[in-house]
Design a protein that fits this description.
The protein is α/β, with parallel strands linked by helices. It folds into 2 domains: about 20-385, Alpha-Beta Barrel (TIM Barrel), CATH 3.20.20; about 400-499, Protocatechuate 3,4-Dioxygenase, subunit A. The chain is built from 11 helices and 25 strands. The chain has helices at about 1-20, 85-100, 140-160, 175-190, 205-210, 215-230, 270-285, 305-320, 340, 370-375, 495-499, and strands at about 35, 40, 45, 50-60, 65-70, 105-110, 115, 120-130, 135-140, 165-170, 195-205, 235-240, 260-265, 290, 325-330, 350-355, 360, 400-405, 415-420, 430, 440-445, 450-455, 460-465, 470, 475-485. Strands 4, 5, 6, 7, 8, 9, 10, 11, 12, 13, 14 and 15 form a 12-stranded mixed beta sheet that branches. It has a 4-stranded mixed beta sheet with strand order 21-18-25-24, with no helix packed on it. The protein has a 4-stranded antiparallel beta sheet with strand order 20-19-22-23, with no helix packed on it. Helix 4 (about 175-190) links the parallel strand 10 and strand 11 (about 195-205). Helix 7 (about 270-285) packs parallel to helix 8. The longest helix is centred in the first third of the chain and has 21 residues, at about 1-20. The protein is globular, with a radius of gyration of 24 Å. It starts with a helix and ends with a helix. The relative contact order is 0.11.
């Protein structure tokens, strides 16, 4: 008995030490900090209203500099601009962003490195050389880093002058030490810069983390990343970009150690974003923001008014469901090849606009500007809306998978997620369980593979076998599958503390 008490006491002490080490120290009030699950700036509540801006690294034979991605150029065309011209365009864009009501900017692309050579420990960043197509810069010496950090200095300084806080998207590769070495240089360089308020350490693991991971491994990874981050960026906050509800099978938001989570829900189905926001509000227990969302409109097939309505509804739903910030994707329309990606901007690429500072911006501001310019976050938790199609986004009726999800004590798990795919893995559908643990998952394709999980629970997956099929009286197979009662194992709380 005495031995058990000693072990239990050691576990308690270890847990307290871990929590103490993971917790940010009190900061200079010029830095964005967190208290009781909310952001503070200058010791006052701060609600980030953010725009995503894709910045590129450009170079000539001598210098590197920050620039808008080529797609943000006049009429969406790839155009070369010198360093001075590029910085002038960035300045005008950032002024316009502030003018439109945003207080923050999430800068993507220019901070994300890829692996060039694991044996030599080299990383590279995609860039543009003069007027040529995309190339890359390999970080192989101090001179390269000096030029790169100077380019970032100039970019961050422009955000600061415009009154914008920055979330900088970077990229850690867990199995590659050189990616940590690279980020350490960046974070140390900006350690005392209060314009940066957070580093986004990885974008959308569902799509870009190619390794299949057990949740216990994800716990270890996030703890390792956060410990590294806290050591080298003591004044800043950490986050990770999750696509949304479908990340729960591996990168479960409730098991991660980062300061806050950034979700990226998009409207592929009617009310999909409102539905996801409701789920975050009910089942996510850690601080979260919307890191990306949008609704495409070019005022022809989809009217600008529909884009405005989407923004208003999702801004309100985010705040009412407990979100502590909101980010729109993205600054400007692009020409990437699909309607959904091309018309999400708050500016189109037509003509030019003069901002309030008298500087020229390429493109014309959409009416969406007025939504953000007049938005004030006012939380009413009673208005976290449950949409009518919460359990069946698409209204499908052709194929059905149904059953019940329980915990190890045979108690129902509410809010668990089940997802199915077709044979080729290129079509999917998902739903969540009701209060009694039951679910009905419809699709318009034949279901072949499935996976299920819940926050703070294990994941399990398999294929549909003949014994799951439900037969009619004539012996013919109906398009429905009964998975009966399946159980999930609770992730041990001590595991999250100690690993």
């Amino acid at each position: 008995m005495k031995k058990k008490v000693v072990i239990f006491t050691l576990l308690i002490v270890s847990a307290v030490l871990v929590l103490f080490n993971m917790r940010p120290e009190k900061k200079d009030p010029r830095f964005v900090s967190m208290k009781d699950g909310a952001f503070f700036l200058h010791e006052k509540p701060f609600y980030p209203v953010c725009i995503n801006y894709v910045a590129a690294l450009r170079s000539d034979s001598i210098n590197y500099w920050a620039a808008p991605i080529p797609d943000y150029g006049p009429d969406g065309n790839i155009t070369y601009f010198s360093k001075d011209s590029s910085l002038a365009i960035l300045k005008a864009d950032f002024e316009m962003i502030k003018q439109m009501g945003f207080n923050s900017i999430r800068i993507t692309h220019i901070g994300e490195v890829n692996i060039e050579d694991t044996t030599k420990g080299l990383v590279f960043i995609k860039s543009y050389y003069k007027n040529e197509a995309e190339t890359k810069i390999i970080f192989k010496d101090d001179e390269t880093y000096s030029k790169y950090l100077t380019a970032l200095d100039e970019l961050i300084a422009l955000a600061e002058k415009s009154g914008l806080k920055v979330i900088l998207l970077v990229k850690l590769h867990d199995e590659v030490k050189s990616s940590f070495d690279h980020l350490e240089k960046v974070m140390k360089h900006f350690e005392s810069d209060s314009t940066i308020f957070a580093y986004d350490l990885f974008n959308e693991p569902l799509y870009f983390d190619k390794i299949v991971r057990d949740k216990k491994d994800v716990i270890k990874i996030s703890k390792r990343w956060q410990k590294f981050f806290r050591e080298h960026a003591p004044n800043h906050l950490s986050t990770i970009g999750l696509t949304g509800i479908r990340e729960v099978f591996e990168w479960d938001p409730n098991i991660l150690s980062f300061d806050f989570i950034s979700f990226h829900p998009y409207e592929y189905e009617p009310n999909q974003v409102l539905n996801e926001l409701y789920w975050y509000g009910k089942y996510v227990t850690v601080p979260w923001i919307i890191g990306e969302t949008s609704f495409p409109a070019e005022n022809d097939s989809v009217k600008y008014e529909d884009q405005n309505k989407f923004a208003i509804k999702t801004l309100d739903q985010t705040c009412n469901c407990g979100g502590i910030g909101y980010s729109w994707w993205q600054y400007k329309d692009v020409k990437w090849g699909s309607y959904h990606s091309d018309y999400m901007g708050i500016l189109n690429w037509k003509n030019t606009t003069v901002n309030e500072k008298g500087n020229v911006v390429f493109g014309t501001v959409k009416p969406l500007e007025n939504v953000f310019k007049t938005y004030l976050p006012k939380k009413n938790s009673g208005n976290c809306i449950l949409p009518d199609n919460y359990y069946n986004y698409s209204g499908y009726k052709d194929h059905l998978c149904y059953g019940t999800i329980l915990d190890e004590k045979d108690d129902p798990i509410e809010g668990a997620v089940i997802m199915v795919w077709n044979k080729e893995w290129n079509r999917s559908a998902h739903t969540v369980t009701k209060k009694d643990g039951s679910y009905e998952l419809y699709s318009d394709f034949e279901q072949t593979h499935w996976i299920l999980s819940a926050t703070d629970y294990s994941s399990t997956r398999d294929d549909f076998y003949p014994e799951y099929f439900v037969y009619s009286d004539t012996g013919q197979v109906k398009v429905s599958y009964y998975l009966n009662k399946l159980k999930l194992k609770k992730i041990n709380t001590w595991y999250k503390f100690l690993y």
